[in-house]
Design brief:
Length: about 350
């Protein structure tokens, strides 16, 4: 995500363009809903000229508005999509081009504007090395404009690993690997609890200053958790790469529907960001040439690695494992991670792997 640095005049033009674009999306959504169509070709034949005339959009921008409307309508055809005035605009290479590394030429209602970019180290390196740029979304957030750009990066080849680094995901401990390294969730959980209490107080108060503070803090927790997940995923991938092992995680899709918790634990369960962490590990593994796999999580924390017994009683507590058959005992999350690694190695044809 790159930050744009427009002049005050350019900022007004971008805002007007964004508002007209999303108003056009809302108009197109009415027609799409009335005709029950999510086809870009059919909707374009119905609204293209009207959008251009009413909202003063360019030809390509009208096409992009129709595309955004159809994509939103496909998600739920029982409801007409509604777009916020400052929703994102998807730009393609016809209406947005890079002028060097530090400027973009971006189309507005009043023609193209040359807007500076604020680059930082990571983005500067990526843009300098990889030239293929796809769609870019113009985003307006907290009074600032950003470009979320797509860069095509070739994945390096990776060989089939002989060993696997298993990783157990959890709430108390965000991640524990089969080497026994623990990434605690105490800091994240503490922050979430504080924010939950603060939100409740501010929502109860209901004053203008309280609403202002709510708006200011709404993404603070999200940014913190994202940063933690980035750091953990980067560390796990680097460890697997350095030791030439594959990286195996649990496939926890649908876990919230399968798990029953007490009422006071629901907020903690539903704020668990395992999907984001898994996604970060997946794409970082692909970039590093590390084989990534997701395995069936069933009974990984109840299986004894010494004798192979699967028993619910083996899991004494959240943190303790003790086999009722052979007496093997240890840290439960570490044992689960070891079982995940073994399962990836043994059941390789049945795992979902990512490799260039």
């Amino acid at each position: 995500m790159l930050k744009l640095v427009p002049t005050p005049e350019q900022k007004i033009l971008l805002l007007h363009t964004m508002e007209a674009f999303n108003a056009a999306c809302n108009a197109a959504a009415v027609v799409a809903f009335e005709h029950g169509t999510a086809s870009k070709y059919r909707l374009q034949s119905l609204v293209y000229y009207d959008l251009r005339a009413e909202f003063h959009l360019s030809a390509q921008m009208a096409v992009r508005a129709i595309g955004k409307t159809c994509d939103a309508y496909k998600v739920n055809k029982r409801k007409r999509p509604e777009f916020a005035p400052h929703g994102a605009i998807p730009y393609d290479q016809r209406i947005l081009t890079f002028k060097g590394l530090d400027r973009v030429s971006i189309l507005t209602l009043e023609g193209r504007q040359l807007v500076p970019l604020l680059l930082y180290g990571y983005a500067n390196e990526r843009l300098r090395v990889y030239d293929k740029r796809g769609q870019a979304d113009l985003i307006y957030r907290d009074g600032e404009f950003y470009l979320a750009i797509v860069i095509d990066i070739p994945e390096p080849p990776c060989d089939e690993p002989e060993e696997w680094l298993g990783v157990d995901l959890g709430i108390v401990n965000i991640a524990v690997d089969s080497d026994g390294e623990v990434h605690s969730g105490a800091q994240v959980n503490g922050l979430r609890h504080r924010h939950r209490r603060l939100r409740a107080k501010l929502q109860t108060k209901g004053t203008k200053s309280a609403k202002r503070l709510l708006k200011k803090r709404r993404r603070k927790e999200e940014r913190f958790v994202r940063d933690v997940n980035h750091r953990i995923s980067k560390h796990l991938v680097a460890k697997a790469q350095d030791t030439r092992r594959g990286l195996a995680l649990e496939d926890l899709k649908g876990i919230r529907d399968r798990v029953t918790v007490r009422r006071h634990q629901r907020a903690t369960l539903h704020s668990w960001s395992f999907a984001q962490l898994s996604a970060f590990v997946a794409y970082k593994s692909a970039l590093a040439g590390v084989v990534f796999a997701q395995v069936d999580p069933r009974n990984t924390s109840r299986t004894c690695p010494a004798c192979g017994l699967v028993d619910k009683r083996n899991r004494v507590s959240q943190s303790s494992f003790s086999c009722v058959s052979c007496g093997f005992a240890g840290f439960a999350d570490h044992i689960a991670a070891a079982n995940i690694g073994r399962r990836a190695a043994v059941n390789q044809p049945n795992v979902s792997g990512l490799c260039a």
